[in-house]
């Protein structure tokens, strides 16, 4: 009995730590989203907009993750499925932004805004990754949150590279190229999260008690 009580205390402490970490990364991503949207609109950058949408998707993802800490494996798996759908939604928005820039507004984005906004966003993403790193091999809930944070690093580096390339070339195509590359990252991430959620659902099904 003492051992069981000790296990229960450990589980509760772990869940409390998970909630605390998720609350921090949720707040960071919400603030980053607001800043990146303003910067993207000011700079006319598809790459910055993709970063902003990624921050919004992550904020929603962390809110969902926070809501299901301590829930069943099946519930966490279905939330992970929804996270995959959110990532796909971000990919669709990036597609729309690229099409808009190509067909309607081909202006060269402001590379200075891209540089400072991308740098601040990368710093925020690195902080989130560091906070989530201890839980990267945990349950599907925290593992999918870590996957989102890891994608953000590629996003942040790519936005900085796009700003530098726009400055170097004086053209807008590097911004669109980076946005297209980020689109591929989103699609790959959605697939990885979907597969992890499907495995978790299968595991939950095997562990469920059989009637009779």
TrEMBL record:
Classification via InterPro entries: Cation_efflux_TMD_sf
GO cellular component: membrane
Localization of this protein: Membrane
Membrane-topology annotation of the record: Multi-pass membrane protein
The entry's keywords: Membrane, Transmembrane, Transmembrane helix
Residue intervals passing through the bilayer: 21-44, 56-73, 85-104, 110-132, 153-170, 176-197
Gene3D superfamilies noted in UniProt: Cation efflux protein transmembrane domain
Protein's UniProt name: Cation transporter
Taxonomic path: Bacteria, Pseudomonadati, Pseudomonadota, Gammaproteobacteria, Lysobacterales
């Amino acid at each position: 009995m003492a051992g069981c009580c000790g296990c229960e205390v450990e589980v509760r402490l772990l869940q409390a730590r998970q909630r605390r970490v998720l609350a921090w990364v949720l707040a960071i991503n919400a603030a980053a989203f607001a800043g990146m949207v303003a910067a993207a609109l000011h700079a006319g950058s598809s790459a910055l907009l993709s970063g902003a949408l990624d921050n919004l998707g992550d904020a929603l993802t962390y809110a969902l993750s926070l809501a299901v800490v301590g829930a069943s494996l099946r519930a966490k798996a279905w939330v992970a499925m929804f996270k995959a759908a959110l990532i796909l939604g971000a990919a669709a928005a990036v597609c729309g932004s690229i099409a808009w820039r190509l067909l309607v507004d081909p202006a060269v984005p402001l590379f200075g805004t891209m540089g400072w906004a991308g740098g601040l966003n990368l710093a925020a993403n690195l902080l989130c990754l560091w906070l989530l790193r201890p839980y990267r091999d945990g349950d599907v809930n925290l593992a999918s949150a870590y996957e989102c944070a890891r994608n953000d690093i590629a996003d942040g580096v790519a936005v900085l590279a796009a700003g530098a390339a726009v400055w170097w070339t004086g053209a807008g195509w590097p911004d669109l190229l980076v946005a297209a590359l980020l689109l591929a990252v989103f699609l790959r991430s959605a697939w990885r999260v979907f597969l992890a959620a499907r495995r978790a659902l299968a595991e939950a099904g095997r562990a469920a008690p059989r009637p009779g």
